[in-house]
Design brief:
CATH superfamily of the largest domain: Vaccinia Virus protein VP39
Distance between the termini: 67 Å
CATH architecture of the largest domain: 3-Layer(aba) Sandwich
Number of strands: 9
Number of domains: 2
Strand order of the largest sheet: 4-3-2-5-6-9-7
Structural class: alpha/beta
Order of helices and strands: EHEHEHEEHEHHEEEHHHH
């Protein structure tokens, strides 16, 4: 599928997926129906795109930042009536422009994978499922629930999504082969949402909670709440995403009450 004239750009973290079996497995997990709107992030040389086209969704939107890749994709798939190839940075892309309900897939560039996933959180309410491939280390962090791999981003995302590891991918599946293994994982939205202001506050809270990993939360947050003292005596890395959100709501409510009394 790859045109040899295409030049890989290291600064964009480009590695072309070439293993047809891996490509089919990834697309199988998206479970494409005829009325689906599918968004592919970073189609590159179009190997995954070709498989997506064969599943015949209602609409396929390919978001690509590289002008050379865009020209190649438009030429390669010019006979496909339901594909739209747009230039865009997935870190800042407005997914709501593509439809009311979407399925998202992509072999994400290693250097911006977490930023892309964080942006997708802003569009959680229109997302059916996302299946991504990232560096294995990144995927392991996102699915972790405690310990040194666990941090503010998995604590944030796991309140909104069920994140499940699907399978690992060898460097041999790519051209050129990266120096590390990759992992494919799935994100399915939970029935949980926050308005924009509360989301910003919760994210700020989590960043502070994980800012001094070896300190107990009562010291990191400077918070004293007797009814939650057991949790405050723990480190952030030892507390589930759901309990961290509960702690956030307790502290926020207490702060509001204190401000009202002043």
């Amino acid at each position: 599928m790859r045109n040899e004239r295409l030049r890989l750009k290291k600064y964009l973290g480009q590695h072309f997926l070439k293993d047809r079996n891996i490509i089919r497995k990834i697309v199988d997990f998206i479970d494409i129906k005829r009325d689906d709107i599918v968004i592919e992030i970073g189609p590159g040389g179009g190997a995954l795109t070709k498989e997506l086209i064969e599943r015949k969704p209602e609409k396929l939107v390919c978001v690509e930042i590289d002008d050379e890749m865009i020209d190649y994709l438009k030429d390669t798939f010019r006979d496909c009536s339901f594909i739209e190839i747009v230039k865009g940075d997935a870190v800042k892309f407005n997914f709501s422009k593509c439809g009311n309900m979407i399925k998202v897939v992509g072999n994400l560039p290693y250097n911006v994978s977490t930023a892309i996933i964080r942006n997708l959180l802003n569009y959680k309410n229109i997302l059916e499922v996302a299946v991504f491939m990232t560096q294995k280390e990144v995927a392991e962090r996102l699915v972790s629930k405690k310990g040194k791999e666990y941090g503010y981003l998995p604590a944030l995302l796991q309140n909104f999504f069920e994140i499940k590891k699907l399978f690992d991918v060898s460097p041999k599946a790519f051209t050129p082969p990266p120096k590390v293994w990759s992992t494919v994982f799935e994100m399915v939205p939970k029935d949980f949402s926050l308005d924009r202001k509360e989301l910003e506050q919760f994210e700020k809270f989590l960043k502070k909670a994980f800012s001094s990993r070896r300190k107990k939360l009562k010291n990191t947050l400077g918070a004293k709440h007797p009814e939650f003292s057991e949790v405050l005596n723990l480190r952030a890395e030892d507390i589930s995403p759901e309990k961290l959100y509960k702690l956030f709501t307790i502290i926020s409510q207490a702060d509001k009450s204190l401000n009202c009394q002043k």
